[in-house]
Design a protein that fits this description.
globular, 245 residues, alpha/beta, Rossmann fold, 8 helices, four-stranded parallel beta sheet
Length: 245
Amino acid sequence: MKLQLSTWPEVEEYLAHSRAIVIPIGSTEQHGPTGMIGTDALCPEIVADGMAEKTRILIGPSLSIGMAQHHLAFPGSISLKPSTLVRVIGDVVESLSSQGFTHFFFLNGHGGNIASVQAAFSELWAASSFRAQASTVRLRLHNWFQGERVVRLSRQLFGDGEGSHATPSEISLVLSAYPEAARDVVLDPEQASTGPIRDAADFRRLHPDGRMGARSGLATADHGRRLREAAVADALDALEKFVSG
């Protein structure tokens, strides 16, 4: 069930039996010569759709622009400042909590969002603490790419070719839903260099084609379908524990 495709009476009826919502959060940033710029937002959307196929859960609109300042030297990348992302998350949670939602499961597709999402959670809880009020809000961050099944399968499929950006796992997951998006590009070198992430100019200088440590050419739609199954199972386990706990 998608919030964007629902009417308000349908959401009100949903709230009669569940107070949980899944919110995909990602980024709009370059993913090398073969990965789509929307990869980090598309991946959690694909996983969320799989979750909705297996259980009745409300899927919120994707927060598709994240904290990606280090990619801004590549055309097409868009970033929020960390402080902006913290405020966006806060406003989303406060909007929905005012209507009765209590459990917010942020399904994340971008490592650069993690610190800002956790900071947003801290700000929300601090607001209750300073008012000396018990918070009814429960917040959970789940990074699909760090799920137990996904990590195990990625190692099996790609070994040390997984890397850390424009990974074959994330590109494969997107190809499972958008096979027509496959790019026939020769990557040189096959496995990109590794190194620290700092500002945008430094990233472009150290990683000129946008990849970090990844053999992106290993990505296939077939691998993506297996990764989707693993990611959905990981996310459903995490959601069940979150809601029941």
